Amino acid sequence: MTFTRPSIPTCAAHLVLAGVSGWSLKQLPAGSNLTATPSSVPFMSMLLIFLLVHSLLGIFRHSHPDPHANLRKLYDLSALLTMLCPLPLLNTQLYLKYQPLFTSTSFLPLVYGYLLVSILVPFTTGFIYSSINQRHKSGYVTTAMNLVSLLILTWISCSYDNLWGLGLAVSYCLKLFALPRFAERYSIVDLYIYGLAFFEIFAINVVIDAELYRVEMGIR
What is the pLDDT of residues 156-165, one digit of tens each? Predict the structure, then answer.
């Protein structure tokens, strides 16, 4: 049996993420949490609960000297989903918030189609090109889908003066392109986890801003 030394900094990063996830769940507006009406699917709650579970998996994974192989695989799968799910789920939640302000034509089928494609396509390519020498191909697909989601977030934020959304778009772009290089240069492997925590803080304020906009427009 091979034992590895537990990574205290990585455990601490996941602990911070767990705390931020719990705090964010408490801050959710009523229309975005698990007590929402059936017509409003709580995508933001799903995202925050998923990130909370991911952080707990990370704590168990990196605190144990010899984590089980299934735990390693489950954490790796969860880590992959953290790169694919956040923006599509947030954008879908924002559409549901602003939906009454759109034209009478329902875009729900397109929105749900976008949600599925933006997650399933990179996820599938990640399995197809899982070998080390081909992993960059799946990385290109993931980056492309994230850029599409960033454009959608920017468009929605500009359309409804959601400054938190614009701030999130800028910060996520930095997280997508600058953070990996910064982490590699200075050997700080846990920056991505802290980046997820900052994403949650921005995202919860984006949703709160959207809820306030609905109140100002008299939408219930």
Answer: 999 999 999 9
Count CB neighbours of 193 within 10 A. Answer: 21
Mean per-residue pLDDT of the chain: 85
Domain-embedded: residue 1: no
6 or 7: which carries more pLDDT confidence? 7
Task: Report how far residue 132's alpha carbon sits from residue 126's, in angstroms, rounded to the nearest whole number.
Answer: 11
The verdict on residue 13 lying in a domain is: yes
* Residues 6 or more apart in contact with residue 28 via CB below 8 angstroms: 44, 45, 48, 204, 207
Task: Output the pLDDT for position 6.
Answer: 61
Q: Which whole-number Å values give the CA distances from 166 to 19, 54, 208, in the listed order?
A: 25, 26, 14
The answer to whether residue 86 sits within a structural domain is yes
Quick one: tokens of 126? 């990640």
The enclosing domain of 157 has a CATH number of 1.20.1070
Dump the DSSP string for 25-59.
Answer: HHH--GGGSTTS-TTS--HHHHHHHHHHHHHHHHH
Split into its structural domains, the chain has a count of: 1
Say what the pLDDT of residue 31 is. 61
- CA dist 64 and 149 (Å) reads 36
Domain range for 197 is: 8-217
User: Does residue 3 lie in a domain region?
Assistant: no
Query: Percentage of residues in the chain with pLDDT exceeding 90?
Result: 47
pLDDT of 27 > 70? The answer is yes
CA separation for the pair 61, 90 (Å, rounded): 27
